[in-house]
Amino acid sequence: MELSLLPGDHLRPGSYCVPPISTYLHDVATRVASWRRQLIWRVGMKRSIAVLGTGRMGSALARALLAEGHRTTVWNRTKDKAEPLALLGATIAPSVLEAATAAEIIIVNVSDYAATAAILRDDAVASVLRGKLIVDLTSGTPQGAREAAEWCAGRGASYLDGAIMATPDFIGTDDGTILISGQVEAFQDNAAVFRALGGNVQHVGQDPGRANALDSALLALMWGALFGALHAIAVSQAEGIELGELGRQWTATAPVVDGLVTDLIKRTNAGRFASDEETLSSISVHYGAFQHLLELMDARGIDRSVVDGYGSIFQRAIAAGQLHGDFAALSQFLGKAA
C-alpha cells in the first residue's frame, strides 16, 4: 500500500498515516452538500421563501415564485400593496420578523441598502437569520453589497447580491435577466428558485459586489443611449424634423452603433488603441463631426451640459497625442477623474 502525506498529516515511525479529523469532516460536509444539491435538482424540492418589499418589482418576483409552487410569504410596509398576492396563494406576514422566521430564503427588494439595513438589522430580526439565505435584489453599490455580505456572515446567514436587468414584465419569463454574485454554493443549492425568477439568471462571480458593478456598467451604457436620444430629439425639434422620422432613421442606424460599441469593448480589452487596418473610425473623424454638433447646438440654443463633458475627454486625448488613434484610445482617459 502506498501512503502519501497531506498537509496536516502526522506520521511517526511504526504508525499509520492518520489525517486530522478536520480533513474527514470537511470531506463529509462537501459530499453532503453535493448530495443535497442533486436531491433538490432531481425531486424539485420547494423552498419556503419570504419576499420583503412588494412594489411593482417585488410583486413580480413573488408572482413568479408562486407560479412555480414555492411557499411564499410576503411583507410590505404598506400592507395593501401585498394583498393582491394573497389571492395567488401568498401568506401576508404582519411583520418582517414573522416573514423572516417563516422562510429559508429571504428575498429583499426595497429602495436601497439603507432600507434593507433598516428592516434586517433590527435585533429581533437579526436573531432569526442564522442558517438562512439572504438574496438582496436592491439597487446599490459594489461596496454596499460587500458590507451587507459581511454583516450577514456575522449573523450566520448566507448572502447573495443581485441586480435585476429587466422591467417587472420580464420577471418569470425566459428573457428575464438577473445577475447574481456571492457564494456559488448558495446559488447552486437554490437553482430551482432562481430559474423561477427568469430564464437568464446568471451567477457572475464570488465577489458579492460583482453584480452591482456590472449593473452600474450596463446602466452607463443605457444612460449614454438615453441621453444621446434626448440630444437627438432636441436637435430634431430645433431643425423641424418629425420625431417619427428620427425613429425610423435610428432603426436603420442602430446596427452600426451596436457594431461600434462591440468593437470598442473588444479593442479596449485587447489594448489596441493605435489605429490600424481594422479601425472603424479614428478620434480625429469623431472629433471633427463633434465640432459640427457643437456649432449646431450653439446656433439653436440647445443645452451643452452633457456634450461638454464629451468635449473635455476628446481634448485630453488629443493633448496626449491621440488625435489619430482608434476611438478606443479614449478609454484611457476615463479610468480616473481629471
What does the overall shape look like?
Answer: elongated
Could you name the CATH class of the largest domain?
Alpha Beta
The end-to-end span amounts to 67 Å
Under CATH, the homologous superfamily of the largest domain reads: NAD(P)-binding Rossmann-like Domain
State which percent range the strand residues make up: 5-15%
Helix content: 40-55%
Which sheet architecture does the biggest sheet show? 8 strands, mixed
**Which whole number gives the mean pLDDT?**
90
| Count of separate DSSP helical elements | 13
Structure summary, number of beta strands: 8
* Sheet with most strands: strand arrangement: 3-2-1-4-5-6-7-8
How many whole angstroms does the radius of gyration measure? 27 Å
Overall structural domain count: 2
CATH architecture of the largest domain: 3-Layer(aba) Sandwich
Output the helix-strand order: HEHEHEHEHHEHEEHHEHHHH
The helix-and-strand class reads: alpha/beta
CATH topology of the largest domain: Rossmann fold
Regions with pLDDT < 50 over 5+ consecutive residues? 1-5, 11-16, 37-43
